[in-house]
Amino acid sequence: MKLVTSARFIRFTALLTIISLLVWIAACNKSSNESLKVYNPPVHRDAQPVSLFHIERLDNLFCSDWMSYNKLICSTTRAESKSEHMYIRDIRTGEEKPIGIAPYLSVHTSPDGQHLYAYSPNGWEAVLMQLANNLALPLTIQQGSERGAWADDNTYIAPLSGTNDYDIAMINKHNGMVTPIALPQQTDIVRKVQKHQAAIYVLDQSGQFTMYKSTQAEPIHIRADVADFSLSPDGKQLAFVVNNPLTNQQELYMTAPHAASRKGKDAIAKTQVINQLSWSPNGKQLAFMTFSLDPGMTGLYVMEAKTGSSTQVSYQSNVKVPIVWSPDSSRLMVSERNDHGLYNRHSITTVYQLK
User: Fold this and answer.
1) How confident is the model at residue 309 (pLDDT cuts 50, 70, 90)?
2) Is the pLDDT at 30 greater than 50, yes or no?
């Protein structure tokens, strides 16, 4: 009789444990849903969300950009050695080809893969590298610490540090000629700049988001309190993040550039921090980082631009480091390093393979 009672007690205890576990899971799911709220995403019935195929971790490597599907521009950060130059690393074979660029510089590859624009974190050093003849051209430019962008196949556009009368600069990849530009009515330091055809999009340190067109005398003010933005490669879609002081959240919007200044449009998503917006080269996906103090949707996400379907590809989030796409739009790369000195010793690069 005592044996039967004990068995019943064990079954009863196990049942209570299962119920408690289910309640905890439900609560976690609820917290997860509330961390990143998605409002009216344009999801189609035939939506095929992005899925993660493989994650590759590269320890003691800091990589700035892609050269091709399997090749990254990296520097080694082992404690026992100091790289004298960056190199092109084949992540499939491990083969390394040195290039004449200091390892502490950040690199941005040209669309044709033949030129590199490199700049230091403090903005006081910039180099244009021509890979065909292995020629490094030092540039007389005081760039801000933020990453610029290739405006087209021939020109790189960079924000300036604000120590002179100019706001941005255009750099010719063939001869390294720097053309500084003073933007009309621009009073604060430019934090981020992108260009498509005649339109230049500028975000300054005060959060003012403005478009300048060579065909118009006056700038077009898009929004205030903007935290980040990214223009699609074809220039037809503009994603940007707005700080909402009433909710203490950030809101992600996606729209055509000509409609970006219109109020009343619903946000795609809302959470505490949304940053590092990055379009895939084919313009089909938007990647971004999110962070929330609540458990749930903190991590790296990829959104299908056509459907609005989002996929979390990593639970890790660092809203201070850029998300860099491979040229064929199949991989994402995120590199992190400490900021103690030019030669960093605890770097890690993570490559996410999508399918």
Assistant:
1) confident
2) no
Q: What is the CA radius of gyration of the chain?
A: 23
Domain annotation covers residue 11:
no
CA 90 from centroid of its chain's CA atoms:
22
pLDDT, one tens digit per residue, over 274-283 is 999 999 999 9
328 lies in a domain? yes
Question: If we measure between CA atoms, which residue out of 153, 133, 128 comes closest to residue 143?
Answer: 128
Domain for residue 233, yes or no? yes
Q: How many CB atoms lie within 10 A of CB 206?
A: 12
pTM of the model: 0.82
Beta strand 348-354 with 331-336 is: antiparallel
Calpha distance 151→194 (Å, rounded): 7
Count the domains in the chain.
Answer: 1
236 domain residue, yes or no: yes
Q: Give the pLDDT band (50/70/90) at residue 22.
A: very low
Tokens of 39: 């409002």
Contact 213, 198 (CB under 8 A): yes
pLDDT in tens, 91-136: 999 899 988 888 878 899 999 999 999 988 777 788 999 998 888 8
Q: Please list the residues that pair with 157 across neighbouring strands.
A: 149, 170
Angle value at C-alpha 305, between 303 and 306, nearest 5 degrees: 125
Enclosing domain of residue 190: 34-354
* CATH number assigned to the domain comprising residue 103: 2.130.10.10
Question: What's the rounded Cα separation, in Å, for the pair 286 and 311?
Answer: 11
**Tokens in use for 316?**
């890790």
User: What are the tokens at 19?
Assistant: 């119920």
Exposed, middle or buried by CB within 10 Å (0-12, 13-18, 19+), for 84? exposed
Distance CA 280, CA 266 (A): 23
3-state helix, strand, coil in the chain (%, to 5): 10, 40, 45
- Residues 6 or more apart from 193 whose CB is under 8 A from it? 148, 149, 157, 158, 159, 168, 200, 201, 202, 203
